[in-house]
Design goal:
11 helices, Rossmann fold, 7 strands, 279 residues
Length: 279
């Protein structure tokens, strides 16, 4: 079993490669990792092109939802995007927050940060900033964000509880998040969970939906709402790379499900840190 640090380094290396891939390659795979499908073009990502602020150069086809569409961003808000990639969600958020607001993208892959900064400069955005850092230890002060968004990123992080603690820390009281992510319902076959490439591709790093929602509640968030849910079907030509015919049949008949969810939750107005006893 790989350590948390080894898994992080795997993701860093893979997403450095993904930064150089075209959108079509990323969308036909699992969050941009290899194993491209010839059966299904769009496995996980949703269509951003109809959203105001959409930037084609920043759309790498890596998401599994449209969190910014559900994020209730208002003019003047400060928004933080976790795992900002080439900047697509940041630019959509910037359209909503306007010139009076501020958008901060955080990504720990240098190649993605460089790509995002180049896209922001090309668009002439002076209130969109990209910071290289770990979302388990965000390079952001406490109580600074009105809204946090993220698209198909927490499933790549081994310590998801640590990320939710950080989200709580950086949000202002009464601030909220809208996060799209991949979760499971049932047991994933060991061969899929143990394949490193599938970890970088979002699936084997995902946890059970019930556990995921429980982490949000345990970290002190309120008004937890499932904004959207859709099933993700992994095509046979990808499954064939990891499972034999009998294993694929057993997987399909197991009732196990892989889902993209978009979740909303608030940081309470009058509450200190979870576990302190004053909430």
């Amino acid at each position: 079993m790989q350590t948390e640090q080894e898994l992080k380094e795997l993701v860093r290396q893979k997403y450095s490669e993904i930064a150089l891939q075209d959108k079509e390659t990323n969308m036909s795979s699992c969050c941009g990792s290899g194993g491209c499908s010839t059966e299904v073009y769009n496995i996980m990502s949703d269509d951003y092109t109809r959203l105001e602020g959409y930037n084609a150069d920043a759309d790498l086809g890596l998401g599994c939802g449209l969190p910014t569409e559900f994020a209730q961003i208002k003019e003047g808000d400060t928004v933080i995007d976790l795992g900002s990639g080439a900047g697509n969600d940041c630019f959509v958020a910037r359209r909503a927050t306007g010139e009076k607001g501020k958008v901060i993208g955080i990504d720990f892959t240098e190649a993605m940060i460089e790509k995002a900064r180049a896209n922001a400069e090309k668009a002439g955005y002076n209130n969109v900033e990209f910071r290289q850092g770990d979302i388990e230890k965000m390079p952001v002060t406490a109580n600074v964000a009105d809204v946090v968004v993220s698209n198909c990123v927490l499933n790549l992080v081994p310590n998801k509880n640590g990320v939710f603690k950080e989200i709580f820390r950086v949000l202002k009281p009464n601030g909220h998040f809208s996060i799209s992510d991949v979760v499971l319902d049932g047991a994933l076959p060991d061969k899929l969970r143990n394949v490193a490439e599938m970890y970088a591709g979002c699936i084997s790093g995902a946890i059970q939906k019930e556990e995921y929602m429980g982490l949000i509640k345990a970290n002190g968030f309120t008004d937890i709402t499932l904004q959207k849910e859709k099933a993700i079907v992994v095509p046979d030509d990808i499954l064939n790379q990891y499972l034999n015919a009998d294993e694929i049949a057993a997987f399909k008949n197991s009732g196990m499900g892989i889902y993209s969810i978009t979740v909303f939750a608030k940081k309470p107005v009058a509450c200190c840190e979870p576990g302190s006893g004053c909430c």
